Every structure is written in C-alpha cells, then in structure tokens.
Write a sequence for this structure.
C-alpha cells in the first residue's frame, strides 16, 4: 500500500513540474515573439525631432509645403497655422514647467509626416526653425509615404516631383491649343498622364502694359455646341494639386504652372474648357481641349521621369 501511495505521489510531482516546464516554454515562446515584433517595429520607427518650447514666447516652424494636419499630444501645447502663411506653424506651451515631455505630429501637403518631442524650457535654444534646411543638412526624420484620399494610391511626393520636372523642362509639345486677346496669351503646353492622373502644363504671358492679376482658374466639361454661349450643362473639375500659387503676371512677364486632375475622357459632344480669370478685370482667357488631345497625352513611364 505504501508503495502504491509513493508511486502516486511521484506521478503527481512529475505531472506538476512537467506542466510548469511547459508553461515556461510557452512564456519563452511568447517572449521571443514579442522581441521579434519589437525588432520589426524598430525598422519602421520615425525618430522625432526634439524641440523646446516655453510659455512666454512663440516658436515658429517653417515647413517646405503647406500644413495639412496637426495633432497635439496633450493640452500642454497650443498651436495653429500662421495667418496668410500655410506652411508656418506657431506653437507654444499652454502651462509653465510642464513635465514630462509631450509630442505633436504634422502632415504637409507633399505627403510628408513629421514627429516632434516637445520639452519645456524657460530659455529655449531657438524660437524659429526652417525644416527644409534641417532636411538638407541630413537630419531627415520624416517619411514621405502619406497617401491622401483624393490622390488614391498616387504618392503626393511623387506628384510634386513630376510637376517640378515638367515645370523645369518647360517644353511645349502642343502647338494648337491657345488663346490670345488684350495682350494676354494663354497656352496649354502639354498634357501628360501617370498612374491615373492628368498633368496639364500651362503658360500665361502678358504682352500688355497692365499687370494681369490672376483671380482663379477653372477646369470644366461643357457641351461642344454650347461651350461659347452658355454656362448651362457644365461640369466643374477640381484640380487635385497645383504646382505654384496663382498670382500676378507683370507687364512683359510670363508664368507657367502644372495642374493635376483625375484621369477622364470625353464624348464627341463634349469639350474640356480651361478658363483663367482676371481679378477686377475682364481679360479672361479660355482654352478648349478635345477628347483626342486627352487620349494622346504623353505617358510618363517610370520613376526616372522618362516621358514618351
């Protein structure tokens, strides 16, 4: 009997320690998985910029592109875009001597995401920062893969690069689409396509003695027979991106620009009208684009910006 009880006790101990050992092996496995996950996260982390802010003074950050989104990590900070300067962020502490540090994030119109850790200091090292110069110096902590809803899978940074390339090349591949009156000449220099988007390259020149102040530009689809006589039956198209702000064209000067729109085609009864309006004036110009012009748009082949 004693032998039986002894064997049962040994069996119970074996099972007990076996279960503990099994449990430990599971825990170790989970630890390895966690370590692997942390390692993978390290590969994709964005190192934040460090910034000191204070209560009595405002810090200004100048970004390379328009600010689209700002998120503050806590109520310790207050921030807002500077008036009439969409690429300048004002930020300061809302309370004195806050601790520990907090953070904030910024997304700009070129698809860049920036992360900042903010620390309180009564005497900040500097109050004004040019992010472009920080990037050029090699201190690049942002990513440029943010996708916007209106751009779909089209990277905003790539779109900006394409617009910049077309602008700098400044070639006229279309010779038959233009408008000229009152000393103002408006040209469509080229239509390009890439990844489901159209790139319209335009130029306006002022051969008069009076400056031309651009009010706005419109893209709209209209019935071909009614295009010149009425605003009825017109569908407005909103550019997704514009390379340069619209401004003043002085006497004897010319300005070019690039506009990005979603790709589309027209029926034989429709035309695309591109109209540019003068502020406080009537020298507006109209370009008329046929479907044949759209379907023969130059194709941008790859990331090297080879254009056929």
């Amino acid at each position: 009997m004693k032998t039986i009880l002894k064997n049962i006790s040994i069996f119970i101990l074996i099972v007990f320690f076996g279960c503990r050992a099994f449990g430990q092996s599971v825990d170790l496995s989970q630890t390895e998985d966690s370590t692997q996950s942390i390692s993978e996260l390290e590969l994709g982390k964005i190192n934040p910029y460090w910034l000191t802010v204070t209560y009595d003074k405002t810090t200004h950050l100048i970004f390379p592109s328009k600010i689209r989104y700002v998120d503050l990590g806590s109520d310790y900070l207050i921030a807002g875009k500077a008036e009439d300067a969409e690429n300048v962020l004002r930020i300061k502490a809302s309370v004195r001597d806050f601790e520990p540090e907090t953070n904030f994030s910024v997304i700009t119109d070129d698809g860049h995401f920036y992360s900042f850790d903010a620390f309180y200091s009564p005497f900040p090292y500097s109050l004004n920062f040019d992010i472009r110069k920080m990037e050029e110096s090699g201190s690049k902590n942002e990513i440029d893969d943010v996708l916007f809803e209106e751009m779909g899978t089209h990277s905003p940074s790539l779109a900006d690069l394409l617009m910049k390339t077309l602008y700098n090349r400044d070639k006229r591949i279309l010779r038959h689409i233009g408008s000229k009156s009152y000393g103002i000449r408006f040209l469509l220099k080229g239509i390009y396509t890439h990844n489901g988007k159209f790139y319209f390259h335009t130029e306006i020149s002022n051969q008069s003695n009076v400056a031309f102040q651009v009010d706005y530009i419109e893209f709209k689809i209209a019935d071909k027979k009614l295009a010149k006589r009425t605003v009825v039956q017109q569908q407005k198209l909103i550019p997704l991106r514009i390379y340069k702000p619209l401004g003043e064209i002085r006497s004897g000067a010319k300005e070019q620009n690039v506009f990005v729109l979603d790709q589309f085609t027209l029926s034989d009864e429709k035309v695309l009208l591109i109209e540019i309006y003068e502020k406080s004036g009537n020298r507006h110009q109209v370009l008329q684009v046929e479907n044949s012009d759209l379907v023969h748009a130059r194709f941008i082949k790859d990331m090297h910006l080879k254009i056929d």
